[in-house]
Amino acid sequence: MNSESSALFQPFKLGDIEVANRIVMAPLTRNRAISPNTVPSPLAPLYYAQRASAGLLISEATQISQQGQGYAWTPGVFNDAQVEAWRAVTKAVHEAKGKIVVQLWHVGRVSHTSLQPGEGAPVAPSAIAAKTKTFIPSGFVDTSTPRALAIEEIPGVVQDYAHAARCAERAGFDGVEIHAANGYLIDQFLRDGSNKRSDSYGGSIGNRIRFALEVTDAILSVLPRGRVGIRISPASPGNDMSDSNPQAVYGALIDELAKRKLAYLHVIEGATQGPRDNIPFDYDALRRAFGGAYIANNGYLRDDAIDAVASGHADMVAFGRPFIANPDLVERLRVGAPLAEGDKATFYGGDAKGYTDYPTLTAA
Predict the structure, then answer these.
(1) pLDDT reported for residue 364
(2) I want to staple 268 with a disulfide (CB 3.0 to 4.6 A). Which of 88, 131, 195, 233 is the partner?
(3) What percentage of the chain exceeds 90 in pLDDT?
């Protein structure tokens, strides 16, 4: 298909957010936040502005509290210093004619005691360790065994999401994305492999989707529904996740979210950074049930993305790692130019090298 006429490169309205094209920059953890306040790097405004030709930028995953942090040098959006640092980012993106939402993140059990308040245990629906690694200043380590959240603690965590959404609004973001994917806290409540609770947050599917809906409703008490999206990964085994019937769980969740008329549903199809067909799953059923804008994600290439939008499978397509080495990815996709390869040694942590020094096609 001629890219000039492809819907992928045409404007779209995502809830209340008008975007210049249907290409999304997916959240990309880069571990460059500055201690002690875990504020975004002083280079972050340039990094995001360089990529502002994407129809929508979704920020790197950003913790809603210190308890929500799971990796070294990831930013937060819950205190004044963080708000000020993010304000410089949103200003730079808006000056570059871009749109940006922040991804609100609580990692749950995918953390380490050294990152937690008072070096306590991470929290989760159930006290089940994730058989996965996390990243602390000394390098990659096994995650720490979590403790189960007491039922009386859960409203406080829900309010942390609402507080972070207020901070995001103060920082000038165009909206927020609720991170309910990739084995982090909301996903841990959803799936029966990680949620063994016997109270009103565990057991039945209706109970397991409760936390996700309470978080969504708390954020909707702060922000207009047209500025709130959510990201899920129903089939991904990442971070030691499993469920006995994901189609039923995520179908029930989407049926409820459809009533709330959010700006968008962002779906990692298949295994994160793996095959999109790792298990049988009907993503089109989720799209139909949701009724609003659908962002498809996971290993899409140029022709896949053009076809996904043209066929009606998706309204927008998210690209992750290609944006690291290709700040002008939208233009490269439009003209069918080759993509630069990212330097994996500089993906996580560090300075400008491998962050803001990748050239555009014209500069190259």
Answers:
(1) 67
(2) 233
(3) 97
Q: What is the DSSP track for 179-202?
A: EE-TTSHHHHHH-TTT----STTS
Residue with tokens 């045409």: 10
Task: Please state, in angstroms and as integers, the Cα–Cα distance from residue 26 to each residue in 145, 217, 240, following that order.
Answer: 29, 24, 22
The ranges assigned to domains in the chain are 58-300
Distance between CA atoms of 286 and 262, rounded to whole angstroms?
Answer: 14
What residue has token string 């991904």?
A: 236
Cβ atoms of 76 and 32 within 8 Å: the answer is no
Catalytic residue among 184, 201, 300, 355: 184
Does the domain at 58-300 match CATH 1.10.10.10? Answer given as no
Question: Residue 36 has what pLDDT?
Answer: 86
In the chain, count of helices (H) and strands (E)? 11, 14
Beta carbons of 168 and 104 less than 8 angstroms apart: yes
Please write the tens of the pLDDT for every residue from 289-348.
999 999 999 999 999 999 999 999 999 999 999 999 999 999 999 999 999 999 999 999
Question: pTM of the full predicted structure?
Answer: 0.97
Q: Is 184 a catalytic residue?
A: yes
Q: How far apart are CA 3 and CA 9, in angstroms?
A: 7
> First-to-last CA distance in the chain?
27
CB atoms under 10 Å from CB of 95, counted, come to 11
Residue among 169, 191, 173 at smallest CA distance from 181: 191
Burial (Cβ within 10 Å: 0-12, 13-18, ≥19) of residue 127: middle
**Alpha helices (H) in the chain, listed in sequence order:** 44-50, 80-95, 154-170, 185-190, 205-208, 210-220, 246-260, 283-290, 302-310, 322-325, 329-335
Length of the chain: 364
- The answer to whether 205 touches 243, Cβ cutoff 8 Å, is no
Q: Which tokens in the block code for residue 109? A: 């059990």
> Residue 281: its pLDDT value, please?
97
